[in-house]
Design a protein that fits this description.
Rossmann fold, 350 residues, disordered N terminus, seven-stranded parallel β-sheet, 2 domains, alpha/beta
């Protein structure tokens, strides 16, 4: 039987080369493992944009299998893992989980699969599973996972803000904010439609969009159709969300699908009020009317109504923000570290 004290190193695996919420969560996990005293080897594509964000102590192995059945990559990676005394593999999402599990088949090296999506078939290759909400856990249990082999570990904030930003006064033009990839599941089109409804009823609104994606031209076309080009501004990807939030009255998260929603957590922690949908991730963080406001998923009129309700209750925002920050504390790096340690120790002594 192994123990944590005998653990030579942990392999942390992600096949993505992009830079976004998933990759930020991967970087946070690397910092957590290093903080716990483990030697960490990151198995990622050589051109991964997030490599520069990783802790200095992390070593790198270039890992980019060409699909699920890349036998050359499988053999090469298996040899590397054996030669470098990797005793646990932490894999993020289905591709990394499946390909690495096949690489180490028969080596008696446990694979801890961390899932940020509801894809379940190839995650079955893991020995133990971590998901980010209770809703996700129920989903995986329905698809055959034993209850003792699934743990919930929400996304974390590595640098929880010491203090809240000052609430921006609601003036003649209410400044809404959106942060995220411009893709259909993020619901930005619904937000534009909801804005149009509210402006039609006499509300003065602007929207600042932080992010980019394949739907950007579609969003521009919708803005032109609605005559809202002068109301909407594009920031591109941002690196300092705290500074960006200082110019926003209300963050809107109109997601149709969202496993967690790190922008919800970041906004709550920094003290910017949030309106979101009842998508599983955001609704696991927000108590409607207490720490933010929630709208029905994929319902433009419900979203417009939730925004209107939040604006009508602007006199209570200070209390809502205080409640939200207190709730967000449980997702801080310091509070998540012991949970990660317990999960790893449980797997190592299996």
């Amino acid at each position: 039987m192994s123990s944590v004290s005998e653990l030579d190193s942990i392999g942390l695996v992600l096949c993505s080369d992009r830079k976004g919420g998933l990759e930020n969560a991967f970087v946070d996990m690397a910092y957590a493992l290093v903080t716990l005293g483990y030697k960490v080897v990151a198995l990622t594509p050589a051109n991964a944009q997030f490599r520069s964000m990783m802790p200095e102590l992390v070593e790198f192995y270039d890992y980019s299998p060409k699909g699920y059945w890349d036998f050359f990559s499988r053999f090469k990676t298996r040899r590397y893992i054996k030669n470098n005394n990797i005793k646990l593999l932490v894999t993020v999402n289905s591709r990394a989980t499946y390909t690495i599990a096949k690489s180490v088949s028969g080596l008696n090296i446990p694979v801890l699969g961390v899932s940020y999506s509801y894809k379940h078939k190839r995650m079955q290759a893991a020995d133990h599973l971590v998901v980010v909400t209770q809703h996700m856990k129920a989903h995986f249990l329905q698809h055959g996972w034993p209850v003792g082999d699934v743990d919930v570990l929400p996304c974390m904030l590595r640098n929880f803000p010491v203090e809240s930003i000052a609430l921006k006064p609601v003036d003649d033009v209410v400044k809404l904010g959106f942060v995220g990839r411009l893709s259909p599941e993020k619901g930005l089109e619904d937000l534009v439609e909801a804005m149009s409804l509210l402006i039609g009823k006499g509300r003065s609104l602007s929207l600042t969009i932080a992010g980019s994606g394949d739907d950007e031209q579609k969003i521009h076309a919708l803005l032109a159709q609605k005559g809202l080009q002068q109301n909407v501004f594009f920031s591109g990807w941002i690196t300092d969300i705290r500074e960006w939030l200082k110019n926003i009255n209300l963050i809107i998260v109109p997601s149709k699908e969202e496993t967690f929603g790190i922008v919800v957590l970041e906004s709550m922690a920094h003290g910017c009020p949030v309106v979101s949908t009842y998508a599983p991730g955001p609704s696991s963080q927000i108590e409607n009317g207490v720490t933010g406001w929630l709208a029905e998923t994929g319902d433009v009129e419900s979203l417009a109504s939730a925004i209107e309700t939040a604006l009508g209750q602007s006199g209570t925002w200070e209390q809502v923000v205080d409640n939200a920050r207190a709730s967000a504390c449980k997702y801080s790096f310091e509070n998540q570290i012991p949970i990660i340690k317990d999960i790893i120790e449980k797997i190592i002594v299996k």
